[in-house]
Description:
Elements: H1 22-35, H2 42-55, E1 62-66, E2 73-77, E3 83-87, H3 90-117, H4 121-124, H5 129-136, H6 140-150, H7 153-172, H8 178-183, H9 192-206, H10 212-232, H11 287-290, E4 295-299, E5 310-318, E6 326-333, E7 339-346, E8 353-358, E9 361-367, E10 373-377, E11 379-382, E12 385-390, E13 396-398, E14 400-406, E15 414-420, E16 436-440, H12 461-468, E17 476-482, E18 487-492, E19 496-497, E20 507-508, E21 518-519, E22 527-529, E23 533-536, H13 544-550, H14 559-569, H15 576-583, H16 589-603, H17 606-611, H18 613-621, H19 632-656, H20 672-680, H21 693-710, H22 714-717, H23 734-737, E24 758-766, E25 775-778, H24 795-800, E26 813-819
Parallel strand pairs: 1-26, 3-6, 10-20
Antiparallel strand pairs: 2-3, 2-26, 4-5, 4-23, 5-24, 6-7, 7-8, 8-9, 9-17, 10-16, 11-12, 12-13, 14-15, 17-18, 18-22, 19-21, 24-25
Helix pairs in contact: 3-7, 3-9, 6-9, 10-19, 16-19, 19-21
Amino acid sequence: MQRPLDTRRVPTATPTRRAPRRWRRRIALGLAGGLGLLVLAGGLGLFLLVERMDASRAQLDGTRDVAGLRQPATIARDARGRPTITAASRADAAFATGFLHAQERFFQMDLSRRIAAGELAALFGAGLVEVDRDMRRHRFRLRARRAVDALPDSQRRVLDAYGRGVRAGLAALDAPPFEYMLLGTEPTPWAAEDTLLTVYAMYLSLQDADASQERNLTYLYRALGPDYAPFLAPRGSPRWDAALDGTRIAAAPLPTAPLPSAAPPDANADAPRPAATGAPPVRSRPTPAARNGSNAWAVSGALTDDGRALVASDLHLAFMLPNPFLPLALDYGRDDGGRVRVSGVTLPGFPTFVIGATDRIAWGVSNSAADMTDLVVLAADDADDADTYRTADGRPHRITTATETIQVKDGTAQTLTVHETVFGPLLARGLDGARVAQSWTAHKPGAVTLDLLGLETAAHTEAALDRVAGAGLPAQNFVVGDRAGAIGWTIAGTLPDRRGAYSRLPRLSTDPNARWRGLLAGEAVPVRRGADRLWTANNRVVGGADLARLGDGFYILGARAGRIAARIDARDRFDEAAMLAIQTDPAAPLMQLWRDRLVAAIEARPALAGSTRATLARLRAWDGQARTDSRSYPAIKAFRDTLRAELFAPVTEAVRRRYPDFEADELGDHGEVPLDQWFAALDVPATTPWADRRERVDRAIAAALDAARSGQRWGHQNRLAMGHPMAPFFPFLKPFTDMESVALPGDRHTVLAQTPDHGPVVRMVAAPGRDATALLSLSGGVTSNPRSPFYGRGQAAWIAGAPEPMAAGPAQHRLTLRPTTRTRPRDDP
């Protein structure tokens, strides 16, 4: 990493939670084609780039006269660049937050709104038109405008003040962010609905926007039937489940019937098929993304020295520059003359806190991975009229249409027709010839609000739990604790209010249970209180009736959650250091199991055991940690991953004979369950495709031994990849923008869930009203400008898992925002 321009990169608007989706890959391809012509050449180009970076740095000191502010506000920064805003009211605090966000992160915000609205081609050119087409069916800009109009007055005042601040912050830069120079364009003004589009972008990032999981599960059931599908796509793990209520879900038996041929459908296959009777519920997975979620847990005051609850929260998203979040402390006046103080992280483009702490409460979140989307197969009403369908009332309905226009940079605008039903928009791809609509919480009124503002003034845990139930945001596990020591869990965000028994497969449009009542709210939202320990890690958290309400979503294998539960159960006293030690725990219980199996498999082959004594000795001595210097971990992982591939390869081939786009990874994160059963089975039926288990295990052993002989340590494979999203297309940026590639401990199923491109971009530990000891660490630092003195600040501490104070240090810079006398905002209190 070089250093005249520190290091870091700008986040692709949507903080993605895991491996990029198909449409993200298409964005990259579009950029590669559209931006290649813009590469700056030679020393002059570099000089101009640096000059633009300097001109677009945030103002740190002095006084700035701005329109739209009621009373003066200050933005102070400590030596790390961590900002503290002091304002007279919540609206003025929102203005200053918008000003700060625009100065530090406007390009990131611009990408977020454009991804959600389907407006990337206007910025990047024709290569992104198809991506925009995919997004336009959601009509999120229209939905955002309607959501703005529906906000209560108190939230609308904050929204409008924030938007004024964004516009003022962008205008106050001497030049727009440097990315616009590379693209040869200028930023467009920030509108009120753009703020809400930022949250719609999070829906796209955190949930299954195209219902990939339900589609692939349907492929599996239709191609292989009820003998194989429940086995290959289980709902849980008897070994690894770590629900708060202790429930475990039994595994389906190993199939004994031959693998169906999965031949193409017959002449009647185009008829819509309802959910199979007795088919286990399915998950609506945030594609391979949701697997890489977050951790959030809490301990009550009974387990701390001062009686206050203690909350830990890691936000796991794609590694990007800048960080998807921005740290902030607010200190603003209340109507009653008191003050509100809150610290945590914000999402650039939105004025509320994602996680944080006040004098009274502290809270954290992790992606719920509940089922937020359903597919509905349209029952044709008239064979001669493809635009009509029937619903449960027996009446015909017509598919409605709307025209969307896509603006194209340096090209001709394109139009497309969006098709909608009473269930939601039509998907581009049907199922076996039938048209399919999608119901998704993001499409419903109330999907985006500023309800999280209520947390800033919540007096205790009960008030916080009440204020987030049904809040307008993507559904999150919400863990909260208060000053009196009480803790609680619920789902913060929108949940579907389904009719009838929950189904994991598509329903017919004529099924009375196909259409949702709306969104779940009030007492129907699951909640847990009264415990001394609570934990979540994107796993299934509840069972029974509560699980039926949430749906069997793309829950992550409970190995990570189980490790957190074990760690907090093993202590009866906690402080911030103890919580941080859990956050940075690289122990790998899942791989400890596979180490034992690998050793046993080698020992069962005497000749092989004799020739691999040194490797066996290292495997037996392995400490169970995914450490960077471990030579055993890559070998164990190769053994397990090869076996998993051996398990799914024959069934994937069979399903793809009928459904070529089938992806086994889209089924869920519990492939460990059938793998366990198959590996442990004493007698694998000869009729199944896995009867040659010994040969398959031999291949897995060979892969493990190859990894061991290579001498590579885990840190050679698990290396940080954190760079500017445009650097791959403008390679000369890399020395200035990208972070140093270093070895990372941890893996997907460890508490320290780090892979090269994904992991805990934020770590927080906080108790209410105890700022002096609270911790907050972020990857990449505060700013997106490589010429800022704060670019990459804190990266080394984040990599090391070192404690970083949440509280700002002494102010090193102070900017005062002063209202102009000619403008007095009418919408401020």
